[in-house]
Amino acid sequence: MTPLTSDYALEIVDLNKAFGGLKVTQSVSLAIRRGERRLIIGPNGAGKTTLFNQISGDMRPNSGQIRLFGTDVTTFAPYKRAHLGLSRTYQIITLFTGDTLEHNVTLGLLGLLPSRWQMWRPLSFYGDLAGEARRTLDTVGLLHLANHPVSEIAYGEKRRVELAMALAQKPRVLLLDEPLAGLSNTERSTVKSLIASIPRETAVIMIEHDMDTALDLAETVTLLNYGRVIVDGERDVVIADERTREVYLGS
Amino acid sequence: MKWIAAALLAGLLLLLPLFAGDFYINLASQILIAAIFALSLNLLVGFGGMTSLGHASYLGVAAYISALLTSRYGFGHGAAAIISIAGTIATAAFFGIIALRATGLGFLMITLALSQVLWGLAYRMSDVTNGDNGIAGLTRPMPFGISLDGAAAFYWFALIVTSIAFLMMAIFVSSSFGSSLKGVRDQPRRMAALGFNPWMIRWITFIYAGFWGGVSGLLYVYYNKYIHPTSLSTTSSAEALLGVIAGGSGTLGGPVVGATLVLLLKNYASAYIERWNMLLGLVFLFIVLVMPTGIVPGLSKLMTRLRRGPR
Hints:
The complex is a heterodimer of chains A (251) and B (311). By secondary structure, chain A is of the alpha/beta class. Chain A folds into 2 domains: 1-85 and 171-251, Rossmann fold, CATH 3.40.50; 95-170, no CATH class. Chain A contains 9 helices and 10 strands. In chain A, helix 3 crosses helix 4, helix 3 packs parallel to helix 5 (155-168) and helix 4 (127-139) packs across helix 5 (155-168). Chain B is mainly alpha-helical and 311 residues long. Chain B is built from 14 helices and no strands. The interface between A and B is medium-sized, with 36 and 24 residues.
């Protein structure tokens, strides 16, 4: 096991967020090593997605600190965090429905390239970008649909496009918000092996309700409830913990 | 088929002065100017999802600066044109910072308010702008010593500028930046998470649209040799917006078709009906009811349906 040095991909220190009187994040502190595979569990409304939104910068915490590879990004806009190696997927599919799968993934690639500012050259002239996008689509098994608009493909395929867009960016920290939600059993195992094949140097933090599948992918588990970290640690230790049973696995 | 049609249209546009009278040539020049203006507004409305009701500001600012510099301060047309465009860009950059604090309806209201400020200034600062009398007695430029006073000469000049404008804006929307812009229009949150800076993309587009608005303003003041505060008015902004939406926002042909329609209605209908605005409203209502996405997308949908044959 890697030693617990300052070599953290993501550190969250005493994070707090409230919507009016509703405390959705309460003194949350987490440290995720480079390449770590972390599963975040908790009942509905535990504050899991809200935590993701604060990490990605969609929401500002009321207090606390978020560090990416040692850089304090608490006040950074989302796009700046992306340039530090952070990518995410969404629980509610957020794709460009009128555009082709290839174009969707191309946007993922373009987001980190200086050529995104280029105004005088058609995007179609960038053959290498399209090639790269198609290669990424191939890894998620959707190359045959590359020229179809997103609106024409099935739900399970859209989930994989979500993943492909994030993977194309070769992130160092990847946030997956319920990547298995609404998938059939076969689709589940496809996406599971996709997640398992993410390069080892990428830290993956995943929110997922499907414990059977997700636990296999995780090394460490964090249990949230009412915006608080209840249990946090090695997978088997968290699963065996009394409080986990109480909050999540029990009843 | 498509190329033949394009070649025919290009030939028709190029040779128009050879078979049409001055009245029609002048009408065509006005259509070209309105087309550039509508195309520039469409960058905001159609491709950026930023519905502006103050785009006349940029046409007006460029026209007024050019008019003042050439008539009052003795500037040549070349220098005046450069300063006018620079002034328009600066105005758009400043207005953009204010307007882009909001999106949607808020954005629309701010653009409306800002353009009203300029319109008010043009009316009230009569010692500078000559107020309601406007600035008359202006001249047209003489590029490479060629006089543009004839209807045909001006038409060809406008056609060259319009062609460049159309081409530049077509490349713009198909470029990487154009793709970013459309992405920010459709999924701003996702775009930010992917590493794009939505605000900056919108602001740069706002300035670029202002720039082409300024170019159309220069042509406008050259054509009319006169400028009046009404060119800065909300009516002027709204007419262009109407054209963009009726023609088909977010397409390249739509704003051109829409601007043509508005101008033709304005010229012909106003000869017969005093309240031509009412007719324009009815035509607009008809278009929106029959083809909600605009004439160009509506017709192309109809064409594909006809080609596939009845089902």
